[in-house]
Structures are given as structure tokens and as C-alpha cells.
Amino acid sequence: MENYEILITFVVHTTIVNTLMVSFEQEIQTNSKIAPRIRAGLNIIHTSYWLNDRLNSFFKGFDLSQPQYNVLRILRGQRGRPINLKDIHSRMIERNSNTTRLVEKLRIKELVDRTTCAENRRKVEISITKKGLALLGQIDPELSEMESEIFKRITKSDAVDLNTLLNKLRG
After folding, report:
1. Cα(148)–Cα(158) distance, rounded to whole angstroms?
2. Tens of pLDDT along 77-125?
3. CB 125, CB 78: distance < 8 Å
4. Which residue from 80, 131, 129, 71 is spatially nearest to 101, judged by alpha carbons?
């Protein structure tokens, strides 16, 4: 009986994987045979753009960009303690972001405070405002709902496996 279950699992898994591969190739409109590792790389890039499009549309409704949201999340994680620009930048998901510009846009929207250190005028500390925290409080449930919709076909086990593979890919 155990071998039968393994065979069924293999057939179901293979069918799902093959369906996804065909779907990807159809989506990029190619009939060419793509090597599995190349297909995986292209699929990661394609999926990244797909996910970014959805997130960009979502955050646009809150007059934010993804990097601005990332800055707000980092600041909320400080639990009221200010942080400098260098440390914010080192924690960003998208490291190519101009952190100074992002913080300035958030300051203009009154979502963050920027304070110059009295002892060292080159040192600037950033903290989230009550308005920034309130905006995150508004975003959180809607983002959670959207993420649930996006990842509804991915089980917890799939997510663990995917994270393991992505970590392995980055070395």
C-alpha cells in the first residue's frame, strides 16, 4: 500500500509540475525546448514581475511604492527607536533604492520624522510617525488578504520547499 501512495504522489506531483512548465512556456509564447535550469531562472524572473505588478497596483491605492512601504515596515520594526539611513538601506529588500529620496517622500507625506543629531550634524535619524503607523495598520489586513489570494495554491510545505530552493540558489 505504501508504494501505491508514493506512486500516486509522484504522478500527481509530476502532473502539476509539468502543467506549470507548459503553462509558463505558453505564457512566454515559445515552442522551443528550454533546459530545466534556464526555465527555472526565466520562471523566477517572470514570476517576480508578475508579483511586482500586483504589489505595485496594491500600494498605488495607498499612494506608496513598494520601497516606501519597505521603509515604513523597517521603521515600525524599530518599535519607536530611531534608525539611521545606512541601517535602513542595509535592510531594504530592493537595495538599489535611493533611501534618502524615499525617506524624503515619506517625510513630505508626514509618515516619518527626520531628525539631525545635535552632536554630529551628518548623522540623521529616522522614525515612523503616528500617521505612518496608522497607514500600516490600514494596509496590513488588506495586504494579508491579497497575499492569501496570491499564494492560495501554495501549501505551507510548498512554501518551505520554495524558500529552501531560493536560498540554495542564492548560495
Report:
1. 14
2. 999 999 999 999 999 988 788 999 999 999 999 999 999 877 888 888 9
3. no
4. 71
